[in-house]
Amino acid sequence: MKPIEKEELQPVLESFMGGPVWLHLETTNGAYAATGMLGQKQMAVCAFIRNGEVEISRAQVAGEGPFRTGLQINGGWIYAEGLTDWELDDQGRLLLAGHDEGGRMAICVELSRTPFPI
User: CA torsion sign, 43 to 100 to 6 to 90?
Assistant: First the structure.
């Protein structure tokens, strides 16, 4: 993965506009939040969707880093914030991820023109 540079990522993100796109969206603080700084128990939170079929009519990357992305779909928006890195794999799937200062993933967004393996 490489650090997000808006000017480089924007056209790649826009290439997923029009036609069906499969979405993977995941965010978690998972085990990282099991114990707080003072040893108290913390609530872990997570959201996950795999192979949500959407059609994107507008795509935007914004911010100064960490970045955010907004994907306009029929009837609404998909929004992700805290993104730091990205890559386009050899199958044309886009992976956006947000890593904390310890290198742990906190959020990811993947887009593909074909369904993801389950």
Answer: negative
Model pLDDT, residue 33: 53
DSSP for 18-71 reads SSEEEEEEEEE-GGGGSB-TTS-B----EEEEEEEEEEEEEEEEESSSSEEEEE
At 18, which amino acid appears? G
Q: What is the Cα–Cα distance from 101 to 117, expressed in whole angstroms?
A: 30
CA distances from 60 to 10, 28, 84 (A): 7, 23, 15
Question: Residue 87 has which token pair?
Answer: 């890559």
Determine the length of the chain.
Answer: 118
**Residue 23 burial class via C-beta count within 10 angstroms: exposed 0-12, middle 13-18, buried 19 and up:** buried
Question: Does this model's pTM top 0.85?
Answer: yes
